[in-house]
Amino acid sequence: MGGQRQVSLAGALGGRGKQLAVTPRTPRRNLKRQTEAREGFISMARARRILHIDMDAYFAALEAQACPSLAGVPLVVGALPGSRGVVASASYEARAFGIRAGMPVAQAQRMAPQVQFVSCHPSLYIHTSRLILKHLLETTSQVEMFSIDEAYLDITDLLSRDPADPASWKQIEALAHEISGSIERRFCLTCSVGAGPNKLIAKMASKVKKPRGVTLLGNDCFRRRFWSKPVEVLYGVGKKTASSLMIFGIETIGELAEASVEFLQRHFGLYGTALHAMAWGQDESSIVPSHAAPPAKSLGHEHTLQSDLHSPAEGEALLLALADRVGEDLRCEGYAGRRVAIRVRHSDFSNLTRQRMLEGPTQETRDIYRGARDLFRANYCGDGIRLLGITVGDLIPTRGREQLKLFPEDRRYRDLLATLDRIRDQYGRCSIFPAGALRQVRHRGQGITPRVTRRHGAHVPAPPPAASIPTGRRDDHAPEA
Ligand SMILES: [Mg+2]
Asked: What's the gap in Å between 227 CA and the centre of ligand 1?
């Protein structure tokens, strides 16, 4: 789990990088001077203290809570054995066998045949996540839900001492324990907490001790602890970047820090500048409070099938189930959209995306379905289908500007949708669905647990979607997606 990283380029793009530029392989004697110069810069900036809360094996812990017989046993949440899906979350008992999120379930089963497999229940995870956010907001309003089970808190203003004062770390530690304890008491869930001068260091600190850990890292500690580690350990650096860096002889975070900004810029562009700043534990991005999240630009769902579809009727049944989900999300979040797009991935992994404009903004299932169905029919080529998705874009907020329905049948349909939403709110998403979508469920013997897609406005660094839930479908982790 986790989300898109947000490293500020502002600091890295300042003049400081030029002053400190060295040859790609900086001699060690220059390193001390370079460090001092950077520390001077850091002390000039406003000192902040950030906590990163990371729930421990969140999905697995919630499933064990819902079914006590699963507590303490090796548990995998995600796709079920025999499917093409992957592990979304593994309990610590399952992790002891080497099972990790993103691993195909078939591989997990081979590694530990005694593991229990449970499918995902996204509505439970989202609901609890919202309760945790509410709970954290009792401590400070500066809370950013970074993903469904991670949050950043800016606690600078809660400290009675100057954050730059070394004695303030005692207060920070007490606060971290207090928050972690209150979450455990309230939700019977454990979390690990990392504290640091910025989001990057806090995030990396929370991974140091898990589960139930509290780790505090200042800039010096960050360097001491991480500079000897491989670059992949640096949050935001993937395998591809790591192998590109290796070509230049950069294997550790320390070596990345020693490389000159110009050198990294030349080979990695703006990302090179960010990489250099990250290696120095620098991140000037601020908390984006969850209540100030930018409005959504589009909302959508997609579903990867366990076995490919080969008839248009089956495709249309799945589209209806997806349109039903998208419509429900739009109504729940108070949006209407005018643009409907479908995404089709065929058996040969070729993708097709088509979109069209509707007559006006809508949040009604039938409008979304008709738009998507027409696109599907116009583009159906007879090939097998492994994934279908619907997205509604060009969103506008609807709160306070609900349109009156002219015709009685339209009013009845709107009332029907409102009733469906209330039923689902009370009894869960799977409690009721359109009869037309039954074909999909009956013929395939599988429920629809689509992957949620959501795009935010680009003007503010977008926090990862609150509803970005790994469902255990392979697509959640597939780089091709
Ligand atoms: Mg977690």
From this structure: 24
150 counts as catalytic = yes
What is the 53 CA–ligand 1 centroid distance (Å)? 8
- The one catalytic residue in 150, 314, 316, 328 is 150
Predicted pLDDT of residue 73: 93
The conformation of residue 448, written as its DSSP 8-state character, comes to: -
Q: The tokens of 341 are what?
A: 């797009």
Choosing among 3.30.465.10, 3.30.1490.100, 1.25.40.20, 2.60.40.290, the CATH entry for 295-459 is: 3.30.1490.100
Q: What is the pTM of this model?
A: 0.61
Distance from the alpha carbon of residue 204 to the mean position of ligand 1, in angstroms: 12
CATH 3.30.70.270: does it fit domain 16-55+126-279? yes
192 and 54 in contact (C-beta within 8 Å)?
Answer: yes
- Residue 149 Cα, ligand 1 centroid: separation in angstroms? 5
Summarize pLDDT for 389-429 with one digit per residue, the tens: 999 999 998 875 666 666 777 888 888 998 988 887 677 66
Q: In the chain, what are the domain boundaries?
A: 16-55+126-279, 295-459
Phi-psi region of 246 (alpha: psi -120 to 50; beta: other; left: phi over 0): alpha
